[in-house]
């Protein structure tokens, strides 16, 4: 027995959504169930990520809002993007073990309702508050800028090559109707835009918005009796580095992510290698973090990922279409869940003008600072 994704749903991304995190999660779940042709009475399991940015929609709350009668299996896994992709692993395991038959996974965030800085949770780490924040080493753009500076020193990284990643994301977003940022971006426009934290500019940084995203997983056997084309969870890998989230940006090995291990395990479990990937949805909270994962996953040789972007490899119609919805940079900040939804739609052939022709194998991954998850999804063969 194996598992398959049979339904996906997302609320319209926005920047001032009046709904609570619980309401966004519930609405996304209803959309995913409708997409699968299932009802809440079919669902007997929930798998979500762990707490993110102080926002969390508990399974008991969402289950009650949906009207679930029984919930014999519930679990959480991982941080941020890693958790939403790693949920596929737990869902498959639970189904194969007979602990549940239909599992719902969701993610929701409403940053417009959060008071204070989006990344204020870093201040809860005593060492950061005492030694780093007073010196200005604070906030995601600053953290990722350090990675970009180190990468440039190690491998060389021109502004044009870094900008090519942002331009490519915008090209994909142009074919995504619900992307928040769809305006064309040229490399000239990128180079004249102001820095946020050198060498990162606004287009190098992910969006900040509100949304809800969900997907439904069941056995492949049951999936074949439903109305949607089942997308098989062929293999999932989950890995972590030996540190806390707060310590992640102060480590020595700052250019290596846990994608090295999660990707290796996902490829092995799915029985494929990187050359088999038709479309990749790689967690892109910044252009540099996406670049590091891309190379750790062996989708690009070390030190050459940005050059490949400049050569159009990751563009629409390129050899390896990357973040085909525009990703976190352009479509919506939905962490890894949005990448799962996009991968499913690509393999179904449901992406209209953004469709990758002949896509049969998709890689999707999520970065949760020290944690990382990689999933290989395939068409049902």
Description:
The chain has one domain (3-114, 207-379): Peroxisomal Thiolase, Chain A, domain 1 (3-Layer(aba) Sandwich), CATH 3.40.47.10. It is 35% helix and 18% strand. It contains 13 helices and 11 strands. The strands form 2 sheets. A 9-stranded mixed β-sheet has the order 3-2-4-7-1-8-11-10-9, sandwiched between helices. A hairpin with a 2-residue loop joins strand 10 (361-368) and strand 11. Helix 3 (80-96) packs across helix 13 (335-348). The mean pLDDT is 93.
Write the layout of secondary structure elements.
Layout (H helix, E strand, L loop, with lengths): L2 E8 L10 H16 L8 E4 L10 H8 L6 E4 L3 H17 L5 E8 L16 H7 L7 H16 L3 H15 L13 H6 L2 E3 L2 E2 L9 E9 H4 L7 E10 L18 H12 L8 E4 L4 H10 L8 H6 L16 H4 L4 H14 L12 E8 L2 E9 L2
Q: Using the CA coordinates, give the radius of gyration.
A: 19 Å
Number of strands: 11
Shape: globular
CATH homologous superfamily designation: Thiolase/Chalcone synthase
Q: Say what the CATH topology is.
A: Peroxisomal Thiolase, Chain A, domain 1
- The CATH class label is Alpha Beta
CATH architecture: 3-Layer(aba) Sandwich
Largest sheet: spatial strand order: 3-2-4-7-1-8-11-10-9
User: What's the main sheet like?
Assistant: 9 strands, mixed
Q: Beta-sheet strand percentage?
A: 15-25%
Q: Give the assembly state of these chains.
A: single chain
Distance between the termini: 14 Å
Count of structural domains:
1
SSE sequence, one letter per element: EHEHEHEHHHHEEEHEHEHHHHEE
Tally of individual helices: 13
